[in-house]
Design brief:
By secondary structure, the protein is α/β, with parallel strands linked by helices. It has helices spanning 68-78, 113-122, 140-143, 158-168, 173-178, 202-215, 233-241, 255-264; strands spanning 3-4, 23-32, 35-44, 47-53, 56-63, 88-95, 105-111, 182-188, 193-199, 223-227, 246-249, 267-273, 276-281. Strand 10, helix 7 and strand 11 (246-249) form a beta-alpha-beta unit.
Length: 298
């Protein structure tokens, strides 16, 4: 796959957007301890990314311009545009302007005729901010799609959650530099982070991870996802749509997220912090559930 310049031949090197392509430097005034100092700060970039299926534009998200091949595959799967990775025949990335990444990137995807026809029938326009899944939805019936049942597996163990949390920051280089990015990590059953993707949008980060997991042919029964954000209904829906049985979030779930987790049989853990977490739903009782004082400030 290659990032193609407009009206020019593609080159393999042009797709390899580096970490430096995802942020810019800006002169700022830092106020601290009654002093104002001039310094350079690193600002996370977000660019318009258009998903174009068989020549028809479907969605535009604001996203970090890295791991876009993973993003395209993961979004296509988690949104139900394709059912399996082999229904995506190929993709090509095209800059809107050759010398201006901020002008946007178009991802041209080639999918099966059947999926393309189904996509046209959905008539969804998801143009929005940082992967908003409801912007432009045409009806209430389209807003909340039925959630897929996931394999019934035990939730991540407390020791595995703790171990994963300890590694999260070290595996988020863009967040370390900018302080403005979410991370979605795939952790094995011992809590070792195997894959991680970052983005300014939490949904985008999860889609990128889903795409990366598919490309790596990962056994999804042998681990769980850890996200640096809250567990929104859409995060639960995306995880379940790909057959992932356990989602761990650093922040809280929403009420709808919990309802969908219960419907899908998905293990949902929130407020994952060093030394504590809350199990909101588990499909198999493991005997390790601990009680937490609901009055404790989380």
């Amino acid at each position: 796959m290659a990032l193609k310049q407009p009206k020019t031949e593609t080159s393999e090197d042009s797709l390899a957007l580096s970490l430096e392509d995802c942020y810019t430097q800006a002169a700022v005034n830092r106020w601290q301890a009654d002093q104002t100092l001039t310094a350079l700060d690193q600002i996370a970039d977000e660019v318009p990314v258009a998903m174009v299926y068989n020549g028809i534009s479907h969605a535009v998200m604001m996203a970090s311009p890295c791991d876009l091949d993973d993003f395209a595959l993961g979004f296509s799967l988690s949104e139900g545009i394709i059912k399996t990775a082999d229904e995506l025949y190929g993709l090509e990335l095209v800059r809107a302007e050759a010398d201006n990444l901020a002008a946007g990137i178009e991802i041209q995807l080639s999918i099966t005729t059947q999926r393309s026809m189904q996509l046209k029938q959905r008539r969804r326009n998801l143009t929005g901010r940082t992967g908003c899944g409801l912007c432009g939805t045409e009806s209430l019936q389209q807003a909340i799609r039925p959630v897929k049942q996931v394999p019934c597996l035990p939730p991540a163990s407390p020791a595995a959650v703790e171990h994963a949390l300890q590694q999260l920051q070290a595996n988020q280089p863009l967040q370390t530099i900018t302080g403005a990015c979410h991370g979605a990590a795939w952790c094995d059953l011992q809590g070792n982070i195997q894959l991680l993707r970052e983005d300014v949008g939490r949904h985008n980060a999860l889609d990128k991870l889903v795409g990366a997991l598919q490309r790596a042919a990962t056994d999804l029964s042998q681990g769980f996802i850890l996200v640096s954000s809250r567990a929104s209904y859409e995060m639960v829906h995306k995880a379940a749509s790909c057959g992932i049985s356990s989602l761990v979030a650093v922040s809280a779930p929403t009420g709808l997220a919990l309802q969908l987790a219960q419907q899908a049989g998905l293990n949902l853990i929130g407020f994952a912090r060093p030394g504590r977490h809350v199990i909101y739903h588990q499909s198999i009782t493991t005997g390790t559930t601990q009680s937490f004082d609901d009055s404790e400030e989380l």
